[in-house]
Amino acid sequence: MAEQFLEKIYADSIIIDQLRECLRLIARYDDRQTMKKYNQAMAGLERLMDEYAQGDPKAATSIQNDALRILEHWDDIAYVTGVIEGGIIPKLYRYMSFFTDIEVEDEGYLLKSSDSGFLTLRSPDTGFFMHDVHDPMQEAGRIADIIYKPEMEHIIIFGCGLGYLPYKIWERSQGAVKITIYEEDEKILSYAKSYGVLSWIDEKNLEIICDPDSVKVIKLFVDNIDYVSKEKCIYISYEKKVKFKGIADGQFDYVAALVQYNWELGDAVKINIWKNKKSKQISYDELRQRVDKKEWVMVAAGPSLDDNIEFLKESKGSRTIIAVNTVLKRLKKENIVPDLICAADSYEQLVEHIIGAEDFTEGVPLLADWATNWKYTERYRGDKCFVCTPTSREVAEDEGRSEDIWDVSGTVSCMAMEAAVRLGGKVVYLVGLDLAFPGGKDYAGNMPHGKVNKKGGTIQVKSVDGGMVETARTFNTFIGIIADNIAKHPDITFYNMSKHGAYIEGAKKLI
Description:
Elements: H1 4-27, H2 31-55, H3 57-72, H4 77-99, E1 103-106, E2 109-113, E3 119-122, H5 136-147, E4 154-158, H6 164-172, E5 178-183, H7 186-194, E6 206-210, H8 214-223, E7 232-236, H9 238-243, H10 251-265, H11 267-277, H12 284-290, E8 295-299, H13 309-315, E9 320-324, H14 328-334, E10 340-343, E11 366-369, H15 374-379, E12 384-387, H16 393-398, H17 412-422, E13 427-431, E14 458-462, E15 468-472, H18 473-487, E16 493-496, E17 507-509
Parallel strand pairs: 4-5, 4-7, 5-6, 8-9, 8-13, 9-10, 10-11, 11-12, 13-16, 16-17
Antiparallel strand pairs: 1-2, 2-3, 14-15
Helix pairs in contact: 1-2, 1-4, 2-3, 3-4, 5-6
């Protein structure tokens, strides 16, 4: 339980949360649960009316009148929600301001009352508040509504804060979900139990992994998550993302970016899969019959594409050329028709790479992730073949074909390389896969790209030419992933055609 002086405050604060739960339940037409939750809120409201009347008798009378109006118009949900949201809740915020004004600094941490009465906490490391300064419980409810689904068995949270989010998830699941919290700061855990709501969660639902060695706890977190599982969900607090940017060789940044990517996609993946399933397509077996050459060229959008245009022209007809979706317009400009285009991006930004080049795709098969943006695949005029990756694994799982999931991640180049391997390639030339900024360039010329996102900072890595070259931390992670993929196929020879890009372990330099 929270400290004794907070018990009364939080007992009053929770009334606001109960009323917001009423609004959520009303939106779902759950009359029985709405009435139950509303009665809970009213029982608490009656208890504090005497105190409110001492500070602001008119406001207390106004709340009582609102409650009566709600009962009189209970069947008119639009009226009821308006009175709760616009009447009672704002007045309760005002009530809480009369009785709560806590602002205590402790070893650099600042515990401060929010407008709802629940405390929020400011970190001395980042200077950021860990929770909404208006209503931390309301904020936690919004996040819980986004990340928790009834089919989930396990929620993994990096960053405890004062425990509002795990509590709301526990409440939403009715105690059905397991919650694991990773936290490197024992003091925050102590605050969460004494000044937050972590102790409100049934202990059998809660697992806490804490180690003062931040690198160690991050490694434990990274090694034990599965961010594509339907039964699991990963959430990283914003404060931790800021605090640990660049730590553990960028591993934390990479996982944070993947988690954010999966959440940003949300329903977009389902929409893309649904639309792509309705499109005309060819089977993977049919695609396999069209590509029978042993030598492949994988074309990405890095600066070294500029140096390999003649090589691509020479390869046409003698090698299978598979190009990622981002180089479509550049290849059209050079009149280099690939044998295969590969696409995987679920975002609508993918469409810009095909607008104006639709005719160029005529007769060129598209190999795409089921989750590829449907507006791109709809514009594509060649035959389309769809496969499952971790992003679209639900397609394979729904059809009982989990073994058909392509184990690729991070970049569409990984998917293109996997295609070369699966479709019989014995020699694979990697063009435009610089994964760095040789000469300060982000991409090859005449590409519909902006700058690479370098929010995570840049580092120096070994270059193909034996020196060092600047790269983004995300690219550095891709370098490792691609090197691991190459190591899995010792029977296949990979050549890195970049002269000054990042060195990729296992990829030979063409002399």
